[in-house]
Design a protein that fits this description.
single chain, about 475 residues, alpha/beta, 3 domains, six-stranded mixed beta sheet, two-stranded antiparallel ribbon, 19 helices
């Protein structure tokens, strides 16, 4: 028989009719019901097809064609899309009617989890679902009734605050509290959990302002905010809320050194250094007052970096007096910004000592630049100051000078931090050599120049080393 004859006599194969719902979706629903999996039971469901069925029923009134199994699955798709099904009053009316008539605990459990996952108190549909659940949960003997009584889960204006307070109350751990309320795993990254986190940030600010520095509250928020080394709530608005809560309480006063270190290390790791231009996008929406707090802390960090590294590589007789001099200006809170430049050897030590979160510039090796040289760049009023760790002069520029070095660049040459300076020594040469340190010679000249141009005065008693006497 030829191929043509075979095709002509062959009987067409009629494929079996596929079920309305994929088998894998049905099995996944069973697993979710039996084992309380955190994944949505419709993660493999053709959500678009199910949505079309409900859209058709809304349009034609063919509700009798929708099975109860589909109504149960509808809770997972009703908030999806630009025009969610949940925004259709008739859809919710029909959904509630189906659930009330069948009184299935598994159906209401799905509705509760969907409510927690999609929670947003500004959405009318969420408020309708909450109102329905507040009455419905009491018809079953289960944990959700107690959870609502304790945390007001189905009162949209109260639940986030109640959960936040529980998460911040020692010795509770936020993840344990959320897990106990059905918001573990992926649900911890949005919905009710995210709104509770925002309330916790607000509560943290209040606690820090009213009760003073509380390391345990700060560390609780830091731990809650990160999962697997990444921010749990990474949107710009959430990042701004987090940075504001951690920084604004310290706009008028200082935290403990431990809080300052924990917060600055955290923010540098997850929002990066706000002083560097290429990190600006990470700080969108953060108030200038909050950024100013971190910049002030990082100024202190830069001085600490400079001091610690130079302690390792510079001669004590050269460095002791320079350290005392600039720390006096920092302690007087008049250094607006500071940036450290490290030569090759100093960089090696800095990497070992401070890790990757601490930022600094690179001082390129070249003419009269030693491998262990470091330069401290500072802004004091309208002055920019560059002082070398050893075997180098102090140079000062007045704002408006086109040669003024910019802070927070990645690489600098020697010329970048010496040329065109405005300050001239008593002999008319650029830069101030560090002679007569033991007697306060260069210190007096530099402090007088700073006072002349900024009205900032630091006394000799403050800028000379402890125990020094004339």
């Amino acid at each position: 028989m030829t191929l043509r004859e075979s095709l002509a006599t062959a009987r067409p194969v009629i494929p079996p009719r596929l079920p309305d719902l994929p088998r894998v979706a049905i099995e996944e629903e069973k697993l979710a019901r039996n084992f309380d999996k955190e994944t949505k039971p419709v993660s493999t469901l053709d959500a678009e097809a199910l949505t079309r069925r409900f859209r058709t029923a809304l349009l034609n009134g063919t509700w009798q064609s929708i099975s109860f199994g589909e109504w149960k699955l509808a809770v997972w798709i009703m908030f999806i899309g630009e025009k969610p099904l949940a925004d259709e009053p008739e859809f919710l009316d029909r959904l509630f009617e189906q659930f009330r008539s069948c009184r299935k605990q598994t159906a209401y459990k799905g509705l509760i989890l969907a409510y927690l996952n999609e929670f947003d108190p500004s959405k009318p549909a969420i408020r309708r679902v909450a109102q329905e659940l507040e009455g419905a949960v009491r018809q079953f003997n289960w944990a959700w009734t107690d959870r609502h009584d304790r945390y007001r889960l189905f009162a949209p204006d109260e639940a986030p605050r109640q959960i936040a307070n529980a998460c911040l109350a020692p010795p509770a751990a936020p993840r344990s509290v959320l897990e106990s309320l059905g918001m573990g795993g992926s649900r911890a990254s949005g919905g009710m959990a995210a709104h509770a986190w925002l309330q916790a940030l607000h509560r943290l600010s209040q606690l820090l302002l009213q009760q003073g520095p509380k390391l345990e509250h700060v560390d609780t928020i830091l731990d809650w905010s990160v999962v697997d080394g990444r921010l749990l709530y990474p949107t710009p608005s959430h990042r701004a809320a987090l940075a504001s809560a951690l920084l604004l309480p310290w706009a008028e006063r200082n935290p403990t050194e431990e809080i300052k270190d924990n917060v600055s290390t955290f923010l540098l790791a997850h929002l990066k250094d706000p002083r560097l231009p290429f990190n600006a996008k990470e700080w969108v929406g953060v108030p200038d007052e909050a950024v100013a707090v971190l910049r002030k802390w990082l100024t202190g960090v830069a001085l600490e970096q400079f001091c610690e590294v130079v302690d390792q590589v510079a001669q004590e007789r050269m460095w002791r007096y320079r350290r005392a001099f600039w720390l006096a200006y920092y302690n007087a809170d008049v250094i607006n910004d500071a940036w450290v430049l490290f030569g090759p050897n100093a960089q090696s030590y800095a990497r070992r000592a401070f890790g990757k979160t601490r930022s600094y510039g690179i001082l390129e090796r070249g003419y009269q630049v030693q491998a262990d040289h470091s330069v401290l760049l500072m802004k004091i009023g309208k002055l920019t100051v560059a002082d070398w760790s050893h075997n180098g002069k102090c140079h000062i520029w007045i704002d408006g000078n086109s040669f003024t070095p910019k802070l927070y660049l990645q690489r600098y040459t020697r010329d970048d931090v010496i040329r065109g300076a405005d300050y001239l020594d008593p002999h008319g040469k650029q830069g101030q050599a560090h002679y007569g340190s033991e007697h306060g010679k260069w210190q007096s000249l530099v402090s007088s120049y700073i006072e002349k141009h900024t009205k900032i005065r630091i006394s000799e008693r403050d800028y000379m080393p402890y125990g020094w006497k004339r």
